[in-house]
């Protein structure tokens, strides 16, 4: 049995939250893999023992729904996945916080902030979009050599969004020159998908792929993530800094 942690603050009224659990269920059933997914609250991860709780999971999904109750809790999970090479998928708010964690802990911008959390901050890596993407479906072009393109089996896709924030254009240049590769852009060249070079599976999408997943047609990117999580050596060696049904719990 592989365990996947869905990092976020579960709300049964959020369509994207219901869809996240459902997408894991669709993909694992299609792949014939036994998977247990648990929602792990960001507040839980902000506690001193929080990161150690993640040792039992083979993959992390950083869910939509920001602002999180604890930004630090979400960022700590992302850092663990990045440093310990644990498969990670971040969608919508998850994408935004992947960018933020990388800016702070790899690029050295320790004061990098998210406009939703601190609109007066001097270094906003994540800023409000000039035009909201909530409810929109848009075209995206993927880099042919990317893991994401291989997961889809094509380089042209269309996906749904639920977000008002994205990468601040002022910092796109520094991001594009880093190991956190920009592998998907919209028709205007704006960053929509990133993946970490050399990592088994570390992907962020500003869109919300789980919204289009169905039992009869699991989403290919979610399936690639679930497959990667099931290949993780369990339990994963963390530091603090098979066919069967899918079960789900909330922590």
List its traits:
251 residues, alpha/beta, Rossmann fold, 10-stranded mixed beta sheet, 3-stranded mixed beta sheet, 29% helix, 24% strand
Q: How would you summarize this macromolecular structure in one to three sentences?
A:
The protein is an alpha/beta fold.
Structural commentary:
The protein is α/β, with parallel strands linked by helices. It has one domain (2-250): Rossmann fold (3-Layer(aba) Sandwich). Helices cover 29% and strands 24% of the residues. The protein has a ten-stranded mixed beta sheet with strand order 8-7-10-11-12-4-3-1-2-13, sandwiched between helices. A three-stranded mixed beta sheet has the order 5-6-9, covered by helices on one side. The radius of gyration is 16 Å and the shape is globular. Residues 239-247 have low confidence and may be disordered.
């Amino acid at each position: 049995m592989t365990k996947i942690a869905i990092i976020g603050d579960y709300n049964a009224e959020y369509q994207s939250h219901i869809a996240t659990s459902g997408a894991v269920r669709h993909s694992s059933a299609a792949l014939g893999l036994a998977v247990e997914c648990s929602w792990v609250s960001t507040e839980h991860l902000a506690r001193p023992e929080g990161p150690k709780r993640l040792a039992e999971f083979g993959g992390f999904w950083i869910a939509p729904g920001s602002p999180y109750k604890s930004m630090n809790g979400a960022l700590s999970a992302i850092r663990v996945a990045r440093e310990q090479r644990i498969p990670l998928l971040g969608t919508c708010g998850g994408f935004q916080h992947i960018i933020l964690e990388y800016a702070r802990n790899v690029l050295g911008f320790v004061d990098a902030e998210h406009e939703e959390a601190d609109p007066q901050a001097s270094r906003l890596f994540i800023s409000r979009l000039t035009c909201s993407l909530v409810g929109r479906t848009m075209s995206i072009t993927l880099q042919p050599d990317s893991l994401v393109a291989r997961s889809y089996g094509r380089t042209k896709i269309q996906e749904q969004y639920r977000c008002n924030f994205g990468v601040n254009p002022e910092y796109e240049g520094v991001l594009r020159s880093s190991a956190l590769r920009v592998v998907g852009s919209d028709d205007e060249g704006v960053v929509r998908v990133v993946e970490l070079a050399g990592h088994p599976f570390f992907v962020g999408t500003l869109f919300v792929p789980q919204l289009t997943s169905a039992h009869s047609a699991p989403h290919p990117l979610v399936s690639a993530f679930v497959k990667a999580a099931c290949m993780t050596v369990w339990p994963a060696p963390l530091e603090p800094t098979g066919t069967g049904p899918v079960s789900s719990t909330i922590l």
